[in-house]
Amino acid sequence: MTETGHAHGQAIEQAWRDLVATARRSAADGLVVGTSGNVSVRVGELVLVTPSGVPYDRLTPEDTVAVDLDGHQVIGRLKPTSELPMHLEVYRDADAGAVVHTHAVHATAVSTLVPELPLIHYMAADFGGPVRVAPYAMYGTGALADNMARALRDRTGCLLQNHGTVTYADTLDKAYDRTAQLEWMCRLWLTASAVPGHTPTLLSRQQVRDVEEQLKGYGQRS
After folding, report:
1. Handedness of CA 92, 93, 95, 99 (dihedral sign)
2. Locate the Class II aldolase/adducin N-terminal domain: which residues (predicted)?
3. Active site members
4. Rounded to whole angstroms, how far apart are CA atoms 71 and 46?
């Protein structure tokens, strides 16, 4: 094996470890139940994905599953997640390094109530604005992937009606953080909306745009 090939192999091994750890974390954090939800990571021209119907705590390095950007399986014996079309659609349309899909309770509840998550908190800025709800379509279908793609236009996350959430980012950690943030915002809105006799104060689109600019300088400089 060439030095380049060895480095690529190591990158795949590390990406798989990170993917499995994130999938397990989504279950531990209550964002998925059983084998629901799925995670993917891009390594060059390959997309590593969680397999279909396999408990995350049983996954080992030997269970690595990877497809090319056309969906052809190139690594692994296990069948890729049924939501593969949705993951691949994100990689085709956006400069994404990782995608996280969950069935988070509060986010899924919100997806049944409104066409987009109201601007209850300024962290909507991290998603590019109000988080939209993609119309319902059966899981694993091209229709669902198409609906999701429209809801994600100029956004980094969306809700799937009567289904769950999708977020993406350049790294797996960031994609997961967005998923957790989205679930928290949905819980916040549901909590505030449930107070009898009161209507939650919402932010304006301009206030969120101002935060978008502020977030560009957030955190530590490398």
Report:
1. negative
2. 17-190
3. 83
4. 9
